[in-house]
Amino acid sequence: MKYISTRGTAPTLGFEDVLLAGLARDGGLYLPDVWPTLKAETIASFPNKSFVEIAVDVIHPFTGDEISRAELHRMATEAYATFDTPEVTPLVELKPGLSILELFHGPTLAFKDVAMQLLARLMDHVLEKRNARATIVGATSGDTGGAAIEAFRSSKRVDVVILFPEGRVSDVQRRMMTTPKEANVHAVAIHGTFDDCQALVKAMFNDHDFRDSVELSGVNSINWARIVAQVTYYFWAASRLGNTKGLSFAVPTGNFGDIFAGYAAKRLGLEIDKLIIASNANDILPRALETGVYAMKDVVATMSPSMDIQISSNFERYLFEASGRDSAFVRDAMTSLASRREFDLGPAWSKLKSDFAAVSATEGDVADAIRNAKATYGYGLDPHTACAYVAAERETAGSNTVVLSTAHPAKFPDAIESITGERPGLPAHLEHLLQDTERFETLPNDLAVLQDFVRSRCRASTGVQ
After folding, report:
1. Which of 111, 146, 222, 318 could be a cystine partner for 176, CB 3.0 to 4.6 Å?
2. Taking 80 as the threshold, does the pLDDT of residue 461 lie above it?
3. Which of 171, 153, 161 is closest to 438 using CA atoms?
């Protein structure tokens, strides 16, 4: 299995090199040179298989012969043993035709754990084999940072620097990043938005001298392995439904990675009727689908902060596919986005409209959804999941719809309490978060300052063991 960049000029790489590279050297994102497909009989066997077994079947075609099935099975078993249920991502039926896929049973109560716990083991495996080190720098709008720090905090070969927008994540999300005491993890509050944090990460990757000096790697969903791991739970959900006719997924969407994993599942052979983009007030993706123009506005702070995004990085992967793998079109679009804050979808627009539906939820919609789900089904939604609940109710009447629940309500206690009058408590094993001492740096939105910070802390650069 080989991988190519969406921008067409980076070297073609194998899975292990793509895993460690993160972003391609031409600024693009990696995709398979040729999409694999799963045999119909393999998919038909999934109802009788565990989450780990399905994960191995789904992921192994993307690793090729670089990682054996036995090695992958061992790492997947270890990764998903960190979850609080053997099902890993349980499916809960609210009513006939509407189910919630709970992706928050990992150690940091968010869907990012599903991919990050496996990603950490994959990276350690490859680095150990190569006797190498890596420096991970990632940007988070809330959940990625905590999941990355939790997954890599015991790594002997990886240093982790996570950037988060100052004052724009929940207290619980922040504390998951700032309370770990391990010397190899560093949380950094940046003066700015998530898009600013993401731009800093991309700038560091595009500075090749810096990138090479610190052995830079990434764990944001720019890393293809993150997407691959998330494909698993689409197949898992379908396998646990007795009837998958008209199967649709409503997905809370900020950076487009989680819903692109659904698109990848379709490419592998899963029959999906609709993939529904669920946005909050930062509705750039629904507007793009409606108008054919991807046009940035200022980021609006909402009660679903992980979706407060205007530059959806993984949308570039979809543009590449929807344009017939036209890397020149993708390069022009990304140049226009950087200079004019917008670009025309051109030939990709009609494909976008056929592959996806899209719904944006106002803050009032989100509050109403949280109250309604509690009153009607006795079920607690977090604000991000509530956006997908709104989308499912509007877009798929009569269909068999799965709402992806991306975070536990306890990660957003202030928002939930303001809506319902009840404050969701953290699971007992995480109650210490609210008392633990925080440790983090606050830095300006300045690339040079950040690069100096990373150089001074990463073992790949300093040589400290």
Report:
1. 146
2. no
3. 171
What confidence tens digit (pLDDT) does each residue in 114-129 have? 999 999 999 999 999 9
Active site residues: 112
Beta strands in 57-132 (DSSP E): 91-95, 98-102
Do 393 and 363 touch, CB atoms closer than 8 A?
no
CA distance 203 to 311: 14
Task: Output DSSP code: residue 189.
Answer: E
Give the 3-state secondary structure percentages of the chain, helix then strand then coil, rounded to 5: 50, 15, 35
> Cα separations (Å) of 406 from 28, 42, 65, 372, 385?
26, 27, 32, 18, 6
Mean pLDDT of 159-186: 94
Cβ atoms within 10 Å, residue 298: 8
CA atoms of 315 and 190, how far apart (whole Å): 24
Delineate the domains of the chain, giving CATH numbers in brackets.
91-106+224-420 (3.40.50.1100)
Nearest to 165 by CA among 307, 275, 294: 307
Say which residues have a Cβ less than 8 Å from residue 456's Cβ, sequence separation at least 6: 462
The pTM of the full predicted model, rounded to 2 decimals, is 0.94
Q: What is the pLDDT of residues 85-138, one digit of tens each?
A: 999 999 999 999 999 999 999 999 999 999 999 999 999 999 999 999 999 999
User: Above 90 in pLDDT, residue 12?
Assistant: yes
SS3 361: coil
Q: Tell me how far CA of residue 447 lies from CA of 3, 187, 406, 407, 451, in angstroms.
A: 29, 16, 31, 31, 6
